[in-house]
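pinned: reference chain
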Amino acid sequence: MSISDPEVKVREGTITSSPPGGKASPYRTITDKELTLVQICCDFVCACIALPLSLVLLSQLSAVAVNAPGRLLTNLQIDSLFPVAVVIALASGGVYRVTHRRLQPSSFLEIRELSFGIGEGCVLALAIGSLLHVLFATSEPYATQLVMAVIVTVATITIGRIVLRFFLHALTTTRVLVVGAGTTADRIMLSVRQDAGMTLVGRIVDHESENDSDSGLIDTLGRMADLPRLCRQLDVHRVLVAAQDEFSVETMNIYRKLQDFVHIAMVPRYYELISWRSSLTDLAGMPFLEIAQPHLSTWDKCMKRAFDLCISSAVLLVTSPLLLMVALGVKLSSPGPVFFHQTRLGRDAEPFTVIKFRSMTTDTAVPPTFAVTA
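pinned: its structure tokens
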């Protein structure tokens, strides 16, 4: 199959190459600049929503006169720089860089960088407010109100980004081309096909010795030398490279040429040892990937335990009325205890006691047993 063919056959239909002359792509997509602008607007709107919510919440929790509900509009005017400061702090922290266009962004992992960025925005808003107070005798913002705004803004922006990703996956697509052969490349292609926000264009092999019959889920579209032309013809947005023993000089030059208009991501060797806690470092300019220890440190264990206790306590508090109704229903429906206790085996065969609402009656008669005689 030649890449000069007007059409390239793939598994679920026909992908027509983009017309000459650089015309617009027929596929629904979003550029890096548009994505950055959408993310900034989303975070700004979420911060604007979070500010009055935090002031209302603080007015219900605080007995200080300055936080009273009657001062809501006044406090909004005083703290109005907070949303702008948040966006500036997030931008200065590199949140909106193109390199942050992750394959599958995790809202949980983003909470940490959002917390730091929004916290910096709080400090920036306090600093600007204090400077304006000194220069123009304006009202100085209150630290308590901005701290509450930070907490609410982290939750609001997290929810806003989840909603934004849902609409981006529904309205746009990222066209992906896979490089390589073998089980790793097959796994990458399967994951891309299962992602609603991605469209699998195809695969190319990276060595002449590789057999086209090993293409797996989709026909091989070409060789490594065809990669730049294929990316332009098929309107590829991202190239995913399977783990390889080494790259030739020609291959490295091809990847360097693609960096200007295509996002490239590579699966490292020994990826089974890499976790989200691994970090990238360097030695004399040579990059190293630090493999995180398999066991949590004492600090990590304490933080995890504190997180588990806080979240579980909050969930129990919110669901306590429903749990009380269920307990009452169990007690009134049949005689016996409300909870059922049972010892089970957990991790490393360690026994633990599970507690749950009783769903069976306690007075069920045991069926008689019959002896079998020859």
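why pinned: The longest strand covers residues 198-204. The chain has three domains: 7-26+173-290, 32-170, 302-357.
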